[in-house]
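Each record in this resource describes a single protein on a pair of labelled lines. The shape at a given residue is found from the number at the same position. The record below illustrates this layout:

***
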Amino acid sequence: HGDEPHYRTGIWRVLVRAAPRESEKAAYIDLLRGAYFDTISPDRVHALEALAKLEHVVSDQDRVRFERSPRPESPEAEPCLRWLLAVSGAESDVRSLAELLDSPNPRVRGLTAYALRHLPHKLPADVAAELQEVAAREAESNDQVYVVSSAFVNAADDGTSQRFKELLLPSATPGSVENEERKREIAAALAILGTNDDLPLLTRLLNDPSVDVRLSAAHAVLRIDRRRPVAFRTLDWLVLTGYAAGMLAIGWYYSRAKSVDEYLLGGRNMKPWAVGISLFATLMSTLSYLASPGEMVRHGPLVFASVLSFPLVYVVVGRFIIPFIMRLRVTSAYEILERRLGLSVRLLGSTLFLLIRLLWMALIVYGTSAEVMIPLLQLDESATPWICAIMAIVTVIYTSMGGLRAVVVTDVVQTFIMFGGAILALVLISNQLGGVAAWWPTTWSPTWDKPSFFFAPGARVSIGLAILSQFTWYLCTVGSDQMAIQRYLATRDVASARRMFGIALICNALIVLLLAALGLALFAFFSANPAMLPDGKTVTTGADQLLPHYIAYGLPAGVSGLLVAGILSAAMDSLSSGINSACSVITVDWIDRFRRIQVHGKEHVREAKLVSWVVGLAVVLLSIFAGAVEGNLFEKCYTVVNLPVAPLFVLFFMAMFVPWATPLGAWMAALSGLGIGIGLAYGFELGWSLFVGWSFLWIMPASLATGVAVGCIASLIPIGTARPMLEMRSQT
């Protein structure tokens, strides 16, 4: 029946759910849209309903087309259209849908309530109150069972919910169509809000004569089972408390810094192996720790070919970038830009850095809180800002006390915890499944990206693209980011800095391969144990939550606490390094650069510590908005955090390797690179057809190439001058 009206829209909706790749989902979505825009199609209303149930967010361009298209004659057309528009979450659209609760047509009122129940977000308080008024007024009408069901799902937990639940209970009259609808609706509502107390009722419904009622009841039972409470036990809390106390003790031990140089750079004589591990731990954030297994589960191993770029990264950075930077006795990396290209370029560079790291830290604390701590502690999503604040406060305390020395030492400790946690999880899953062979794949999963060795723009990931993207990211990050440059300068000489960087790359390669293997193990474990998946998730749609979910349900007491400590380690070492580096940039590039009377010694150190607290507060505030970004954690890293990375490095490339570079050329380079990155990340949403279909992994390579080309050409324009490179080097 795939081409028959009425059947086909339901089939396409199922195929959207089942399609393993986004391109296939988009193809079926286009078929549904086409069915609505075809004004002679007999199933236009069905197409609207299918799009709404799929939670398809209508673009601004499509919105105008949907609103102007002639309405089908069915009275259900208007509520379905408003339902689709309300999926976006805009309060005006939700209220527009709720207005139909006053319709004189009972079928329209019922469909409107049904739509309000299925919206993917919480209703505004006034809409929920209006829904409850209508439900209370028409509770006795069997025609309005959807209104009562929707009121129950959206009621506040103050006794109101129980009242509507009782109104929804099926009557004693067996066999009537109305009673069958009521039983289906109570089962559907309990699938959303039900607890173990509702299992006796659902068990009775499992024996109902109607197959639809039995299916709804079975669905509710399975979802209630997935909402079982997490057993985070006393021993787990003791492990976490001991971890936090250890971090604070390290900060207190190194709290005796006498100068800003010692506070921010550790006296410039720190051990290369320790600083190398610290650099690795800094760049291996919770985003990577959680996103890597999730990326393997959902999209497969192609992206992990990126480790093949590491030898080339070491050669280029060790041969060209580290020696240049180590010749300069600076505290902030962006002092280099002022010496070569003037104050405006220095401020541009430091601003881009702060933008990158503030967004990065905000996404780290949000990801750790929302994806790990909230599910583990069984807290409401509204508690996310408080968890973010607690993480930031603990990190700021030990970071502000001990400076870079405390950061490096805690990074080393946290690295061992990170590796230990991942290895332990891999060993336990192997033991539970019966060995490594049980989770090692023998076939290519249909959900994984198709193998590709070339640089096809339309491919999400290819081996060549993964290598190019990782090489570009590493080159741009370690060649311009204060967090990396700060660690070069913390070592004794060029040889020590190279050795430090090599250790960081080796650690990174090991953890990437380890987390990729952990992703395969989690994929096999949850495929074999689907009942342990999070409520409402499949193995692929819940890929980012599989590791924290396994920690919650698959591990013994104490071990769960250790793995959570490993995830917190990945978050807090990145957060501490980011705060310390942002503090150094704000202190040196902004405060010290523009103050008339310089301060020194302990007063200067106290000022830097205060800046650390300001940065921590900014991170917590930004983390509140991090959840609004679409995509899995891996994609969020590229489309949000990494957008300014290549434009920032372009400034250093111009300063280090382009003799004719000018301030105008540097500005044009950064802005053009940023524009290309925004186009590749958000071109589809902005309606820029040139960028539609390009993988997010092209963002940095394209941004870097564009910035360098534009900067070199724009520097030929006879506006502004730059100090010669030879003069700049001779002064050092």
Notes: Confidence is low (pLDDT under 50) at residues 726-732.
